[in-house]
Write a structure and sequence with these properties.
By secondary structure, the chain is mainly α. Helix content is 63%, strand content 1%. It has one domain (15-374). The protein has helices at residues 15-36, 40-51, 57-95, 99-103, 106-129, 150-179, 183-186, 189-214, 219-222, 224-230, 235-240, 292-301, 318-340, 346-370; strands at residues 141-142, 147-148.
Length: 377
């Protein structure tokens, strides 16, 4: 059988530019944003203008919805990808007349049950804890909005239902379409799952390192002194809490961060490591640069590959294109919601758009190269 490397939306078909052009435009705009925000005053002023979106009810629900969404998107995708790899492993062994795997095929069903159950239980616990969680301002107070927890809880419930539907459909699609109709093996879905998981592992390994080494603060921290002054009712409880969101001038981390400690995205932040008065966080991935949420949205977008109907990706129907259009709207909305929320600068998200796109290209061709001998037509 003739062998050649599998392509992703090959140029010879009309689908290539439908997918490539919007991504190239986003990357080009992001490069322009990074150049402009090399001047910190521009980055800061953009943050000031976007933060005004929190002055209305829609803005509050919108940013909390996307914040919750980005926290759990990866879980759904990972459960789905591991289901594909597990099913593929069993089917390959069964096709080779391995009776042990055929006898123990129930393990795949158990995986579906355990994965879905863990998802339901984990989210239920999270929802139950939101009204009583103390993040520095008292039980049930949302430290992001300096307001009641109902914005966060409502958003978390909506995200839970939305992502539970997606997870259910995804697992059903794998078991009763890809497996039952023999598409899982014939169209090499294991390769798509491998690319998706490699992207998640590789990109987040780099992101965690970058967050810890760049040590960039959020706009929220930069102006925390102003925020707490606008909500003095929370001050006493905050001072008694272990949370440190602002700069410390001997008054308990309740000040804005001085201008000399606010750096543009490109400037090394080594002095910040030696400044005990800076805001403190629980772990490196809570820092601003780059954006884990944007990268998670790119990871979820990789699931569109699962709807392609042949292994060479040259038959792209309107359903796949519609999914891509919806994903574009999703990732752009995520971008602006993060900036409005004050937990990312526009330079953070612009860099991540570029980074994630490059990682997709690198991983796609790297995985194709590694598994070239298995990519048969």
């Amino acid at each position: 059988m003739h062998q050649k490397q599998m392509n992703f939306f090959t140029k010879k078909n009309g689908g290539f530019w439908f997918f490539a052009l919007p991504l190239l435009i986003i990357v080009a705009v992001s490069i322009g944003v990074l150049i402009a925000t090399g001047w910190y005053t521009i980055d800061y002023q953009i943050a000031v203008e976007f933060a005004k979106g929190l002055t209305n009810e829609f803005g509050k629900y919108w940013v909390r919805f996307y914040d919750q969404l980005g926290n759990t998107e990866l879980v759904v995708i990972v459960i789905i990808y591991f289901a594909i790899l597990l099913e593929t492993w069993f089917l390959l062994k069964i096709n080779k007349k391995n009776t042990k795997f055929k006898k123990h095929y129930w393990i795949t069903t158990t995986y579906y049950f355990l994965g879905f159950s863990a998802w339901i239980i984990g989210n239920t616990i999270n929802l139950a804890l939101i009204p009583s969680t103390d993040e520095g301002f008292g039980p049930g107070i949302d430290f992001v909005l300096f307001d009641n927890y109902h914005y966060k809880l409502t958003s978390a419930i909506l995200v839970f239902f939305y992502q539970t539907i997606l997870l259910s459909l995804g697992l059903y699609y794998i078991r009763y379409w890809l497996v039952k109709k023999q598409r899982l093996l014939s169209e090499q879905y294991w390769l798509k799952a491998t690319k998706g998981l490699t992207f998640i592992i590789g990109s987040y390994f780099i992101i965690v390192i970058m967050k810890g080494t760049t040590h960039r603060i959020y706009y929220y921290n930069a102006i925390f002194g102003d925020l707490i002054q606008q909500h003095p009712v929370f001050l006493d409880h905050y001072l008694q809490s272990p949370f440190h969101y602002g700069y410390n001038l001997g008054q308990g981390y309740i000040n804005n961060i001085p201008e000399e400690w606010q750096y543009p995205w490109w400037k090394p932040a080594i002095p910040l490591f030696n400044n005990p008065n800076m805001p403190t966080f629980k772990s490196p991935w809570e820092y601003a640069f780059p954006s884990g949420h944007i990268n998670a949205t790119y990871c979820s977008g990789s699931a569109i590959l699962l709807f392609l109907k042949n292994k060479n990706n040259d038959k792209i129907n309107w359903k796949v294109k519609l999914c891509f259009i919806l994903w574009l709207g999703h990732v752009l909305s995520m971008n602006f919601a993060l900036i409005v929320e004050r937990f990312h600068w526009i330079s953070d998200t612009a860099f991540t758009f570029i980074f994630s796109t490059i990682m997709i290209i690198i991983i796609h061709f790297s995985i194709n190269k590694i598994f070239a001998k298995h990519l048969t037509l």
